[in-house]
Amino acid sequence: PNSTYTCCAPDQIANMANQFGMAKLMLGRCPSCYYNFRSLFCSMTCSPDHNRFLAITDYGTSTLYPGKTTVEAINYTIADDFAERILTSCRDVLYPGGNQHSLDSMCGRPYDQCTKEAFMQYLGIDNPQVPFPIHILFSNNTSEAESYYNQTTFLCSEPILSRYENKTACGCLDCQKSCSPTPPDVPDKKFTIWNLDGWFVIAIVGIVLLLSTFFLSTFTISKLRKSRATEYRFTGEI
């Protein structure tokens, strides 16, 4: 690859940075998502290796600068898993001030149904803000790695540690992987007596005691009645 860092002039870079205003508003809550998202378009705009992964498919004539040729459509080939990593890092990001996910507005479908194909289709073709059609194509042919763009990305749960940035990981609201694991339910210790359910044993013992008391009382009362009857007969005979 070319050793030149960028093919954009300072004013072009500044202009591109300004174009990220809406994306920063919608994705900036999660630094790694926003970083990954920017890398997709920064490389498309300013990479010195455009000839590897970028192809102009349609030209036009400038109305602002007569006689000048304009780009009307391009093919931008990226690694299949690069697109997937960008989507994964951004999937749970919430739009500031609400409970709506940012991808609901950036994918053309609900965030949990967004696929990398739909995401890139919306960013490059369906988005009314794109200046011309950007056909984002995927490749997973590792033997032809020089023919598509790939870039290191950060998980939403990872801090950004790079030459130019030092950012913390995304918060729990915008990244499920950043949330602390839910402690497992600890079952209540079972109350047992002699390896049997403790309350069952207590109930049986209670019933036995009640029955014993009942029979003992019945026997005692019967005994007393017989004793009194015998005593009465004995007194009468005298």
TrEMBL record:
InterPro entries: NPC1_N. One of its GO terms (molecular function) is cholesterol binding. Keywords: Membrane, Transmembrane, Transmembrane helix. Residues 3-197 form the Niemann-Pick C1 N-terminal domain. GO terms for cellular component: plasma membrane. One of its GO terms (biological process) is cholesterol homeostasis. This is Niemann-Pick C1 N-terminal domain-containing protein. The keyword Membrane applies. The chain crosses the membrane at residues 199-221.
